[in-house]
Design a protein that fits this description.
It holds the Pfam family NMT1_3. By secondary structure, the chain is of the alpha/beta class. The protein contains twelve helices and ten strands. The protein has a single domain, classed as 3-Layer(aba) Sandwich (D-Maltodextrin-Binding Protein, domain 2).
Length: 347
């Protein structure tokens, strides 16, 4: 009997000890559990989409190189490149929250934010900010030499592609040719479709934005099948356009990059990257820092970038609101930010 009682007491003690161990466990693990959210917040990951352009454009490879730099050099940030119609569509996507970064141009960021110029009739895009302007961007009017087109006015009634649908090029073509009273027989197409149409002689010309220092891959592709020339604007034509759109600019380009003599005068802007204002300041800072510190890698992807300082261009030659994280980086580099570049969230 005593032996049985001893066994029972032993079992009760084991059960009691186990129960005590279970009741005390929460106290020992609670600090670790409560610390987890703070650790997760400190290492928050961001998965973003980058709006690029047509894959047949020379700029597409640059967009891919940019994403490579970010993914390899910015902790906890992953960027996926998406092929799009180009600058104007990317601005729309940033405004809608579909992408967080995107290829575009200045002054298009400014014009889109105000709903004016080529963006007249659209609601002001209050979500977009300028992240970085990399290089001068010229809009080239490319025509076949056997088309009989020798001037901008000769485009009247000719089969002409204004650029990707919803692109900045398309909007710009409508605006500046409209200011001159020139109306081509518009051929709506992507860059790759326009290239094919040029090579098959279904259209007379198309417009393509590109660097001032290197021929765009799409134009080089057309030249493998068709002799082309790049049109220039006359002084009188420029005066008419600037009377309607005083915020646009023109510049001369050495025509030798296209195998022509002399210079080409055409509309210019700055090839730029837009960013959503909702991207955290520290993320924008780290992204632009990585891009500026890895420019050689970007130049290998797009030779037209060589010789330009994106930080300097962004701070001194652009209009529109700059993202706060970018402003932080530019100030660290010693640049003064103009009042009109400071966004409302910093005032």
């Amino acid at each position: 009997m005593k032996r049985t009682l001893a066994v029972i007491l032993s079992v009760v003690m084991v059960v009691s000890l186990a129960a005590c161990g279970q009741s005390s466990a929460p106290a020992s693990v609670a600090p670790a559990a409560s610390a987890a959210p703070a650790s997760s917040a400190a290492k928050q990951s961001y998965n973003y989409t980058w709006g690029a352009c047509s894959s047949s454009s020379g700029y597409y490879a640059l967009n891919v190189a940019v994403s490579d730099v970010i993914n390899k050099n910015v902790d906890n940030v992953s960027v996926t490149v998406m092929e799009t119609g180009g600058g104007a569509e990317n601005l729309k996507f940033i405004g809608e929250g579909q992408v967080q970064f995107g290829q575009t141009s200045v002054p298009d960021i400014y014009l889109a934010s105000k709903g004016i110029g080529a963006f007249e009739g659209t609601a002001p895009n209050e979500n977009v900010r300028l992240m970085l302007s990399l290089l001068p961007n010229v809009y080239y009017f490319v025509v076949s030499t056997d088309s009989g087109i020798n001037s901008i006015s000769d485009l009247q009634g000719k089969k002409f592609s204004p650029g990707n649908t919803n692109s900045s090029s398309e909007r710009l073509a409508y605006a500046i040719l409209g200011a001159l009273g020139v109306e081509p027989d518009w051929y709506y197409a992507s860059t790759s479709e326009a290239v094919d149409a040029m090579k098959n002689r279904r259209i007379d010309g198309y417009m393509k934005s590109a660097s001032t220092k290197a021929i765009d891959s799409s134009i080089a592709d057309v030249k493998t099948s068709v002799d082309v020339k790049i049109l220039s604007f006359t002084k009188e034509e420029i005066e008419k356009i600037l009377a309607a759109y005083p915020y646009y600019a023109f510049q001369d380009v050495d025509a030798s990059i296209f195998g022509q003599e002399g210079t080409i005068t055409s509309m210019t802007s700055f090839y730029s990257y837009g960013i959503s204002k909702d991207v955290p300041e520290d993320v924008a800072y780290n992204v632009v820092k990585a891009l500026c510190e890895n420019q050689t890698y970007l130049e290998d992807a797009y030779a037209g970038l060589k010789g330009f300082d994106p930080a300097e261009i962004t701070a001194t030659n652009t209009s529109g609101y700059i993202h706060p994280g970018v402003i932080k980086y530019l100030k660290e580099k010693g640049y003064t930010i103009k009042d009109e570049q400071i966004p409302p969230e910093m005032k």
